[in-house]
Specification:
Blueprint lengths: L1 H8 L1 H7 L10 H21 L3 H33 L5 H17 L1
Helix pairs in contact: 1-3, 2-4, 3-4, 3-5, 4-5
Length: 107
Amino acid sequence: MEYREMLSTDATMDRIRSGVQVALPLDDMLEKAARYVAVSYDKLGFILKYDQDLERRVSEWHGDDIDEMWTMLQPLVKGKWRERSPRYAMEFERIGQKAVEFEAVHR
């Protein structure tokens, strides 16, 4: 929770979220927080992948947070981090995209 809150209120992450090119690397603490959040949601995505009903319920309950974090971290995950590891956070991407779609329909 602290890492998500830190990312949500950080000015650099606001710029990344809005599509502004940011000079990389990020400071160590910010990158650590971003990686922690990405890996945590990746683990959640892996668990939910095998239980569609649970995935739907988590999306209903927690979808706005997943949407926010995926939207914010997508440029880092799909850019910088996947250059080093092409399959990095694939399940986070999967649940992130579903959350974005779910939130768009239910707003």
